[in-house]
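RETRY 2/3 - previous attempt timed out on the joint model. Re-submitting the same 260-residue input unchanged.
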Amino acid sequence: MQRQQNLTKNQKIVLDVIEKSTEPLKAYSILSNVKKKGINAPPQVYRALDKLVDMGKIHKIESKNAFVACQNSNCKVSKAAAFSICESCEEVTEIDNSKISKYLSSFADKIGMKYKKYNLEFFGLCKKCK
Amino acid sequence: MQRQQNLTKNQKIVLDVIEKSTEPLKAYSILSNVKKKGINAPPQVYRALDKLVDMGKIHKIESKNAFVACQNSNCKVSKAAAFSICESCEEVTEIDNSKISKYLSSFADKIGMKYKKYNLEFFGLCKKCK
DNA sequence: CTCAACCATGTTATATTATTACATAACGTT
DNA sequence: AACGTTATGTAATAATATAACATGGTTGAG
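RETRY 2/3 succeeded.
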């Protein structure tokens, strides 16, 4: 019953590449990065990505089909995440989500939903670009 | 200078299909729905979808690569949207976003971002399914 | 008017993202 | 050792999205 620790070999390889990247990585870009480590085909990458997302170790930026390492220890619990995405420099930053989480979960209650996670993406201009 | 009114022929056809659907539609499903109306190829659909999203007439559910009609008049202004997505019955509902909008835009200010829009997707179980 | 600029459309081909399906191996449990 | 379970490997293909280029219609400046 793998949970939290004990990543498998492929999961470790994929997570390592994502953690070392300064920007969100796409699945096929990850694949080309790990060919030398013996990962040869898309399903191997996608399987690892799925599990890592499940564990809260990484997040998928849905609007970009790309993956980033979680920068936020509490995601392991909630799997909820919030990002700001700069439309000029493309920088993606994970927002410390404890306040947002509290607010959004109370909101979910109000609309009668049993909420498990959320994904929030802000678009605009970051400090540098505006 | 087309804005708001005056949808083009293809935009009308695509919007019509989306508005009549009770669930989010994917681009290729839209395509197969409108073949009989003379739309033959993906770019015609994707071009219409892009414009309709720009105008705030429809929204893209990023986690599903699917499109729904906007149910919320103020989206035309902000282009921001929030959805609840049931993981059991797959129902997607647009959340009336005026309160969330206010909260999230103040949040964006706080983190120093000049925010243009956001996309928020809640996952969980809807009233019926829980 | 007319032609030049612009935008919408049409069409083919291809790029990109993701999954299915099946075969093999590794590992713990009894 | 035999079994069930999970991880891995591999080939093929499905599903999503865009590039590139050709055609046609509308409009408004000259």
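The longest strand of chain B covers residues 114-125. Closing ticket.
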